[in-house]
C-alpha cells in the first residue's frame, strides 16, 4: 500500500472556482484503493458553504512558527465517497467571500502558511505519505520546505514530491526580500537556479525545481510550455527538466456528469435517445432565460471564467456578425469586468439571441451543457480544459482552438471520412474562429444526419478518469522511494 497526499487550494465538493477543484476532487476517486491510500488537504475557507462545513469534524489544533509569529493551525477532517479530506483552519488567512483575492502579497503569505501547515500536520494526523502531490503555485513551497527543513526530521525523510501544473500563467511571484521574510527560507534559496525569477521570487518555480517529478494536464500543453510563447518565463527550466515532465490529460467524473442521471436537468437523455430527448432541455432553457423559443435554432453554450485565457477577444471582435446568423448564445461566467460587460451588452442588443448569465451556478452550467447544440471555447491557451469534455459527454459539439488539451481531446470534423467529435481552428484569429462557427452552423442546418452521427461519436468517446488515473498510478509506482 502506498500513501499519496494531495495538497491543493481547492477541491470539489467543498470549494471550487475552476477546473483545478474538479481534478483534485475527482481524480482520487479513480485511483485504485487496493494499492493507494489517497488523502487530500485543502484550506478551510470561511466561504465554504454551511452544508459542506457541516460534514467537517474538528480534530485538534496547535501553533506553528510562521512569519515571525506563532500562527494558529486548526485541523478538521471529513470523508466523502471513501476519500479522506483534511482542512487547515486559520481565519486570518482563509476568510473573505472567495478563496482568492487580488492582493498578491497577501495571497503569497496565505499559501506559504498553507504549504508549511500542510507539512506540519502530518505527524499529528498520523498520515505518512510516500508521495506528496502538489497542485499549482499555491503549493509550490511544499517541495521546497520538504527538502529544506522537514527532511531533517525522520518522519519526513524520503518523502517524494510531484508538482502538477494546471496553469502556468499563475506563479505566485513577488519581491524577493519580502518572500524571504515571509517564508523564512535562507538566502541560498533565492538564486536564479532556485526560487529567483528576474529578480523576484517565484513559488511555482520553487515547486518545479524541488519536485521529483513534474506533470501537466495534457500532452500538448506539456510540449507548449517548453516554448517561449506558452512558457511564461519558465520554458528554459521546463525544457531542462523535460525528462521529469509529462503530460497526463484530465478526465471528468462520469457520475457527476451524466445526462442520463443528472439531477440538474429536466429531461434526461442518453446516447440512444438524444435525437428526441436532448432538444427538450433546449426548449426549457430558452423559456427559462427568455430567449426566442424555437427547437430548430442552433444554441451555442459558453461556461467559463471570463478571462483573457479563454479567447473572449475573438468573440468580441465578431459577435455582431455572428448575431446576424440563426444562432443563440447562452453564456455563464464571471471574471474580468470588461468581458462581463461585453456579454451584458450583447444580451441587451440581441435580447432574443444572447443570454448573459454573469454568476456562478453548478445547476445552470449543467443545464447549458445539456441544452446547447455546440459549445464555444476558443482559448488563447488551455492546459487541459474540462468544459469541452463535459460538452462531449452531453452530446454538445465543441468548437475549439487547437491548443493544449483542446487539441488533445477534440477531434476535428472530417467531412470526407465522416470522422471527428467537434470543430477546431488553429490560429488565434477572430475570422478563423467565425469561419469555423459557420462551418458548424452549415452542418447543423444542412445535414442533420451527419451532425447527429457526430453526436454519436462525441458521446462514445471516453474521458472518464479510468485511463488517466492509471497513468498517475504508474508515476506513483515509478517514484517508489
Ligand atoms: P478553468 O479551470 O481554466 O476555469 P476548465 O474548463 O478546466 O477551465 O474548468 C472549468 C470548470 O468550471 C468547469 O467545471 C466549468 O463547468 C466550471 N465553471 C466555470 N464557470 C462557471 C460558472 N460561472 N458557473 C458554474 N460552473 C462554472
Ligand atoms: C486550469 C486550466 C484548465 C484545466 C484545469 C484543471 O484551471 O486553465 O485548462 O483544465 O486547470 O487541470
Total DSSP E strands: 18
- Main β sheet profile: 9 strands, mixed
**How much helix is in the residues?**
25-40%
CATH superfamily of the largest domain: Glycogen Phosphorylase B
Task: Estimate the global geometry from the Cα principal axes.
Answer: globular
Distance between the termini: 13 Å
Number of helices: 19
Radius of gyration: 23 Å
CATH class of the largest domain: Alpha Beta
Q: Strand order across the biggest sheet?
A: 3-4-5-2-1-6-7-11-12
User: Uncertain runs with pLDDT below 50, 5 residues or more?
Assistant: none
Question: What is the number of domains?
Answer: 2
What is the mean pLDDT?
97
In this entry the ligands are: adenosine-5'-diphosphate, alpha-D-glucopyranose
Q: Which CATH architecture of the largest domain would you pick? A: 3-Layer(aba) Sandwich
Question: What is the beta-strand fraction?
Answer: 15-25%
Q: What structural category characterises the helix and strand content?
A: alpha/beta
Would you give the CATH topology of the largest domain? Rossmann fold
Description:
The protein folds into 2 domains: 2-251 and 466-478, Glycogen Phosphorylase B (Rossmann fold), CATH 3.40.50; 274-461, Rossmann fold (3-Layer(aba) Sandwich). A 9-stranded mixed beta sheet has the order 3-4-5-2-1-6-7-11-12. It is of the alpha/beta class and 481 residues long. The chain has 19 helices and 18 strands. Bound molecules: adenosine-5'-diphosphate and alpha-D-glucopyranose.
Amino acid at each position: 500500500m502506498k500513501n499519496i497526499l494531495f495538497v491543493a487550494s481547492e477541491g470539489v465538493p467543498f470549494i471550487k472556482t475552476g477546473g483545478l477543484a474538479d481534478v483534485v476532487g475527482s481524480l482520487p476517486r479513480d485511483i485504485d484503493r487496493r494499492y493507494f491510500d489517497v488523502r487530500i488537504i485543502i484550506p478551510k475557507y470561511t466561504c465554504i458553504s454551511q452544508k459542506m462545513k457541516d460534514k467537517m469534524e474538528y480534530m485538534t489544533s496547535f501553533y506553528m512558527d510562521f512569519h515571525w509569529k506563532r500562527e494558529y493551525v486548526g485541523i478538521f477532517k471529513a470523508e466523502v465517497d471513501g476519500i479522506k479530506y483534511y482542512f487547515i483552519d486559520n481565519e486570518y488567512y482563509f476568510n473573505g467571500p472567495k478563496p482568492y483575492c487580488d492582493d498578491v502579497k497577501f495571497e503569497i503569505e496565505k499559501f506559504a502558511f498553507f504549504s508549511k501547515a500542510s507539512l506540519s500536520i502530518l505527524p499529528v494526523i498520523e498520515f505518512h505519505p510516500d508521495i506528496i502531490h502538489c497542485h499549482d503555485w499555491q503549493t509550490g513551497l511544499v517541495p521546497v520546505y520538504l527538502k529544506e527543513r522537514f527532511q531533517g526530521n525522520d518522519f519526513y525523510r524520503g518523502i517524494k514530491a510531484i508538482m502538477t501544473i494546471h496553469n502556468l500563467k499563475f506563479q505566485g511571484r513577488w519581491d524577493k526580500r519580502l518572500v524571504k521574510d515571509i517564508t523564512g527560507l535562507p538566502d541560498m534559496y533565492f538564486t536564479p537556479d532556485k526560487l529567483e525569477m528576474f529578480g523576484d521570487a517565484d513559488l511555482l518555480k520553487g515547486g518545479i525545481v524541488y519536485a521529483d517529478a513534474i506533470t501537466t494536464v495534457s500532452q500538448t500543453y506539456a510540449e507548449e510550455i517548453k516554448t517561449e510563447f506558452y512558457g511564461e518565463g519558465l520554458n528554459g527550466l521546463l525544457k531542462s527538466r523535460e525528462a521529469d515532465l509529462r503530460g497526463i490529460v484530465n478526465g471528468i467524473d462520469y457520475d457527476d456528469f451524466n445526462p442520463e442521471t443528472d439531477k440538474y436537468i429536466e429531461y434526461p437523455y442518453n446516447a440512444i435517445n438524444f435525437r428526441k430527448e436532448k432538444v427538450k432541455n433546449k426548449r426549457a432553457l430558452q423559456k427559462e432565460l427568455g430567449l426566442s423559443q424555437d427547437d430548430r435554432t442552433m444554441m451555442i453554450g459558453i461556461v467559463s471564467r471570463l478571462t483573457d485565457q479563454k479567447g473572449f477577444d475573438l468573440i468580441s471582435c465578431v459577435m455582431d456578425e455572428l448575431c446576424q446568423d440563426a444562432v443563440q448564445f447562452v453564456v455563464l461566467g464571471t471574471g474580468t469586468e470588461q468581458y462581463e460587460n461585453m456579454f451584458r451588452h450583447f444580451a441587451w442588443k440581441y435580447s432574443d439571441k444572447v443570454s448573459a448569465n454573469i454568476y456562478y451556478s453548478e445547476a445552470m452550467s449543467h443545464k447549458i451543457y445539456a441544452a446547447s447544440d455546440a459549445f464555444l471555447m476558443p482559448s488563447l491557451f488551455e492546459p487541459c480544459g474540462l468544459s469541452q469534455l463535459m460538452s462531449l459527454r452531453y452530446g454538445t459539439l465543441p468548437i475549439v482552438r487547437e491548443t493544449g488539451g483542446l487539441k488533445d481531446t477534440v477531434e476535428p470534423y472530417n467531412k470526407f471520412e465522416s470522422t471527428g467529435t467537434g470543430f477546431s481552428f488553429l490560429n488565434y484569429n477572430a475570422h478563423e474562429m467565425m469561419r469555423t462557427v459557420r462551418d458548424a452552423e452549415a452542418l447543423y442546418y444542412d445535414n442533420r444526419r451527419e451532425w447527429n452521427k457526430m453526436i454519436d461519436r462525441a458521446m462514445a468517446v471516453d474521458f472518464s478518469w479510468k485511463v488517466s488515473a492509471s497513468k498517475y498510478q504508474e508515476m506513483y509506482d515509478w517514484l517508489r522511494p
